[in-house]
Design goal:
Elements: E1 2-3, H1 9-19, H2 35-40, H3 43-47, E2 53-56, E3 61-68, H4 71-82, H5 102-110, E4 126-132, H6 141-155, E5 160-166, H7 170-178, E6 182-183, E7 192-198
Parallel strand pairs: 4-5
Antiparallel strand pairs: 1-2, 2-3, 3-4, 5-7, 6-7
The protein binds coenzyme A (COA).
Coenzyme A (COA) is lined by residues 19, 23, 130-132, 137-143, 165, 169, 171-172, 174-175, 178.
Amino acid sequence: MRPYRTEDRDALYDVCARTADNGGDSRPAIPDLQLAGSVFAEPYPALEPELTFVVDDGQRPVGYIVGTADTATFARRFREEWLPPLSERYPAPTSGGEPQSLAELFVSLMHDPERLVLPELADYPAHLHIALLPSHQRSGFGRELMRVFLGALHNKGVQRAHLCMVTANTPARAFYDRLGFHVIDVPDPGPVNYLGRETLW
Ligand SMILES: CC(C)(COP(=O)(O)OP(=O)(O)OC[C@H]1O[C@@H](n2cnc3c(N)ncnc32)[C@H](O)[C@@H]1OP(=O)(O)O)[C@@H](O)C(=O)NCCC(=O)NCCS
């Protein structure tokens, strides 16, 4: 386990692509291997590098936790700093209809960072994403990544964090339950759950 370094970028895109389809491999559905990571992984170390930690197998990162201390500020900076250089490669959806594929869903999420800011989450200002390659799951690394990440938030004076997960990802839900996360009530959450907990470990 160690803090993020800029040379970890490609590995984070890779781990994200291999775990972005409800915790499983998104590469069969999305040939563009940077799309998932451009939404759920790399913007975080790009904007708040001190809150990204990786599990390194000695050759490369095989897992990560990324996040922000303040979701509202993150959403604004995502819109102003992260999104503009990506907009040519991933144009904003024009139809306004429901996304028809996982790739369309990720692009629509990319162009809507304001979705991250909900009044019900105001007491949980931080948020996170965590992923490990299948070869390194169920070995305690997820627990350790979470402990280090929440500790870093706590040291910054942030008291609570939340995450958003696809309800169908039941293995991840078992993990979060085990680590003391609870459901945050959000009206009409759709196919996702919002979970939160104190940063005190
Ligand atoms: C979810 C994930 C981060 C968990 O990390 P992990 O390293 O596999 O989990 P750990 O080994 O640290 O487990 C911590 C605790 O959760 C429990 N747990 C983890 N996965 C579980 C599962 N699938 N079912 C039941 N319990 C589980 C463990 O038993 C352990 O409990 P214990 O310490 O009391 O014995 C990891 O499996 C993963 O990256 N999955 C794919 C990506 C993903 O779904 N990310 C979350 C998106 S919302």
